[in-house]
Amino acid sequence: MMKPIHRSSWCLPYVVFMAIFVVLPLILIGFYAFSDGNGHFTLANFTKFFQDKDSLATFALSIEVAIENTAICLLLGYPVAWILTNKKLNKSAVTIILFILPMWVNALMRTLATAELFTMFGITLGKGTLLYGMVYDYLPFMIYPIYNTLQKIDPSYAEAAEDLGATPWRVFWKVTVPLSKPGIMSGIMMVFMPTVSTFAISEFLTNNKIKLFGTIIQEKIYASMWNYGAALAFIMLIIIGITTLLTNNDSDNQVEGGLI
Amino acid sequence: MKKFFAQAYVWLLLLLLYAPLIFIAIFSFTQSKVMGNWAGFTFDVYKNFFTGNFQGSSALYAALLNTLLIAVVSALVATIMGTLAAISFYNLRGRKKNVLMFVNNIPMINPDIITGVSLFLLFVFLGISKGYLTVILAHISFCTPYVVLSVMPRLTQMNPNIYWAAMDLGATPGQALRKVLIPQLFPGMLSGFILAFTMSLDDFAVTFFTQGTIGLETLSTYIYNDARKNGLTLELRPLMTLIFAFVLIVLLVINLRSAKQARNNKK
After folding, report:
1. Which of A6, A15, A22 to probe the B interface (max B CBs under 10 A)?
2. Is the pTM higher than 0.90?
3. Tens of each residue's pLDDT in chain B, 267 residues
4. pLDDT tens, position by position, B41-63
5. Whole-angstrom Cα distance, residue A199 to residue B116?
6. Which residues of chain B neighbour A8 with C-beta distances below 8 Å?
């Protein structure tokens, strides 16, 4: 007979900590976003954003860059994950580590090094270098989750499809890709969310020419425009909520579909 | 043929991924401010880096020390609080558990900038002046979830009866925790600590929003402020090369060893 260890008091410090340092701060974003300098309710912070052409343009650009980055990472990363899990094409277990390893070097340093490299080869810093740097920074986040799900797929599914006469191309699209959908979804989330919210990286990679939404939030907060900054952060939270719902829903359906 | 293309593709991407690191490493062995200008092989840049013979050396040293100090303290607190929380979360059931685990996952899903801004507003709201305390509290808040998630799987593998056996034999809950639970959970706690430590080392955004104006800098914020003025300065090249070499050696040794162990186990 297994009796669980009832020590609910042991989590008390962490529960109190989370209430103060995780839940309350998020509530405060909402509170500051919907109030003016005196704490009175207002929607002015949001109307200000929707009337500010520069902020809106930056917002649109950030979403665009994030989508492009996610798409490129998926296109480049999926084949890598597939090759690395394919026993016929790759036997070494260390190769995947080589893809993750650069992540342990400080991200700002790596970004600066990339920018230096562009300067060295005489490439003008701009949107192209921004995208390159983003892909460079986030590609491992796409490869790793896909690699993990591909590794767990039972090879007998693909073999069964082959036995039933499917071409390798068809097996890939009809069996492997659908089964790896949870990995693709978490890869998309892990690349899209940090890209849409990034700051500092875009300034380094474009020599301050291109600003992204994260930089605007940071500038507003540092200019003591807390309410406006909080409103912008609130908008970002909504984007993140939507992304989470979209990616989660799909992977849930996938699991259910797999069971049927 | 197919294998050749597959390998070529993988190695080409790896080459692109490593190119910046390799170039920085190469140009850390020459005294040239501009990358691409080779001014003869020398160890001078390394010598200057270690002897502090460059402009702003004390600021960089202080930043390095702060980074390590903050990472050690945050990871330690996170490991203790997270392990205790994991033990009691694991044995909770139903809605209570779902809610607590959901809140635990928030800092991991939230982008850094949201965590940073939200904590910034918290400290403004509570009127706490920003400095070491706020940075460490902030780091604990995004480090602890990783400890909780690292310890949980060990609890699944553990037989709870050994804990009750200790209690039956007269141990107090504290003694049972120290003598029975912690030794059992140690591998999970260790990997949680390492994860928390690296998360803290690598953080930029959260530190940036909670560091205040007392001149507290970590490596990330130092680089951010320094780079805006001077780009990747000469002194940062040996530092980056050393970090890269260290990570490369540690990870390769760990992975080659575990690969070897796995092969031995198969036999």
Report:
1. A22
2. no
3. 788 899 999 999 999 999 999 999 999 998 888 787 888 888 888 999 999 888 888 999 999 999 999 999 999 999 999 999 999 998 888 899 999 999 999 998 888 999 999 999 999 999 999 999 999 999 999 999 999 999 998 988 888 888 889 989 988 888 988 898 999 999 999 999 999 999 999 999 999 999 988 889 999 999 998 887 777 888 889 999 999 999 989 888 888 887 778 777 766
4. 888 889 999 998 888 889 999 99
5. 12
6. 88, 91-92
For A34, residues 6+ apart whose C-beta sits below 8 A from its C-beta are A41, A42, A43, A45, A231
A-chain residues near B220 (CB < 8 A): 106-108
Helix (H) or strand (E) holding A8: none
Cβ count within 10 A of residue A119: 18
Type of residue numbered B207:
T
Confirm or reject contact between A101 and chain B (CB < 8 A).
yes
Residue-wise over A51-86: b if at least 16 C-beta within 10 A, else e? eeeebeebbebbbebbebbbebbbebbbbbbbbbbb
Q: Are B255 and A93 an interchain contact pair (Cβ–Cβ within 8 Å)?
A: yes
Count of residues making up chain B: 267
Q: Cα separation of A104 and B247, whole Å? A: 7
Q: Map residue A35 onto helix, strand or coil.
A: strand
Give the C-alpha separation, A250 to A187, whole Å: 13
Give the CA angle between residues B19, B23, B24 to the nearest 5°. 120
Q: Do B113 and A86 touch (CB under 8 A)?
A: no
Taking only residues 121 to 160 of chain B, the set having a beta carbon closer than 8 angstroms to any beta carbon of chain A reads: 121-122, 124-125, 137-138, 140-141, 144, 148, 159-160
Across the interface, whether the CB atoms of A199 and B205 are under 8 A apart is answered: yes
DSSP state of B28: G
Task: Say if A65 is an interface residue toward chain B (CB within 8 Å).
Answer: no
- Quote the ipTM score: 0.87
Looking at CA atoms only, how far is residue B122 from chain A in angstroms?
5
- The two tokens of residue B97 are 């558990």
Residues 6 or more apart from A16 whose CB is under 8 A from it? none
